[in-house]
Amino acid sequence: MGEGERIPTHSDEVPGQAGSEIRSIFYSPIYWFKMLARELHWSFVFGVTIVYGVSQGLGGALARVGTEYYMKDVQKVQPSEAQVYTGITSIPWIVKPLWGLLTDVVPISGYHRRPYFIFAGSLGVVSMLFLSLHPGLHIVLALISLTASSASVAIADVTVDACVAQKSGLHHSLAADMQSLCSLSSSIGALVGFSLSGIFVHLIGPQGVYGLLTIPAGLVFLVGVLLKEQRASSFAYEQMNQNLVNAGKAMWKTLKCPDVWRPCLYMYLSFSLSLSITEGMFYWVTDAPAGPMFSKQTIGYIMAIGSVGSLLAAILYQYGLKDYPFRDILFWAQMLSCLSGMLDLALVLRWNLKLGVPDFIFVVVDASVSQMIGRLKWMPLLVLSSKLCPAGIEGTFFALLMSIDNAGLLTSSWLGGLLLHVLNVTRTEFHNMWLAVLIRNLMRIVPLFLLFLIPRADPNSSLLPDEVMNTKEVAEAQASENVELVALVNSTDGR
């Protein structure tokens, strides 16, 4: 070794390595985003970002806070009634298979996806304008408008889900990345939306917020204009009924597979048994004399900070948990959900004040933890659902799986409303609120005993047996029997 040479020391390497690591951390999301745009096309990534990030994330946050105050301050309904009304407006999400079936088997002007984005955006603009421009609206008309707005978001959601499911079938290795893109977009959008929601509700009122929600709906319309989709060369509309029948048969065949119906049963039961008493808690933290009496701005800030937990969960799943078996992640997520529910009980019983923890700090921690755990439970179920979709009916079947989840959430909402009614939790009476929270927490234990329904499989592998995966081949084999689903499958596959 010459005189001018020496062994590099650790202190010589650290600055360069540290700078390189910092740059890598900063640019990694950008490279990841560009990779998805390159592999999946930029219009697809744009559509996912708009639908999940702007429409569902930001728009959903504004709509949630705006609707809660609209029901409480404008319509002046009881918390148990608000819980039921929330379930009614979610009905379009229960019939998601209908929207998915339409996108799969009923093309418009040769396109399976673009026209449905355009219709969804138009419906959202009209319904939000109607709500914002009519003061003193009767509760029935208000529910119809809110349900139409919910249908707008649901149709856009099922259409982009069909795109995601189709891409997942073509790019198995990117399935988890696509779900991470969906979750990150939704979480970031919700963070921004909740941050602004309380301010907007305070300044322009709930109906003014509905006026603002025409912007996300308009952007969904734009997705339909820009999305790259190959136009089907021909489609025999007289064969539409036969296509619907064949799609139904393919769905039924898939559902009969134990590897499919068992996870479906778990998803429904796990959501329905986790009773929702969200409206009761909202009324308690804003109106109860013994409660925190939070203002509109404070509610928005709490939900915004809480949504950070959802964002962190999406990042944690993408970079640390996406390769773990579904059953393991769901076990720990459900266990943590049981434990985190005790934070609500401590808040209602005012234990946090006895420990010297201010209400705002305690509720922020509670909201962050709850949303993080909820997202950690939701993401593996989304990946699992995307892998249970047979080729040719991706949109329909993924919508069916999501409708099962939403049916569970609807059951949870209505059972929670019934619980609040039975315990006599009203706008002015909150003495039994602690009991409602306790019962909800105990019910969260039950799904732990149902985890045997979830496959302990590699999340990166195909989960469907060959006879279910080969839906396209089955359709082709039946062509001699005048079954013309082949054209549908080919167009869905992007040929």
TrEMBL record:
Origin superkingdom: Eukaryota
Subcellular localization: Membrane
Transmembrane spans: 42-63, 116-133, 139-160, 181-203, 209-227, 265-286, 298-317, 329-349, 397-421, 433-454
Bilayer topology term: Multi-pass membrane protein
Gene3D superfamilies the record matches: MFS general substrate transporter like domains
PANTHER family: FOLATE-BIOPTERIN TRANSPORTER 1, CHLOROPLASTIC, FOLATE-BIOPTERIN TRANSPORTER 2-RELATED
NCBIfam families, sorted: fbt
Protein name in UniProt: Major facilitator superfamily protein
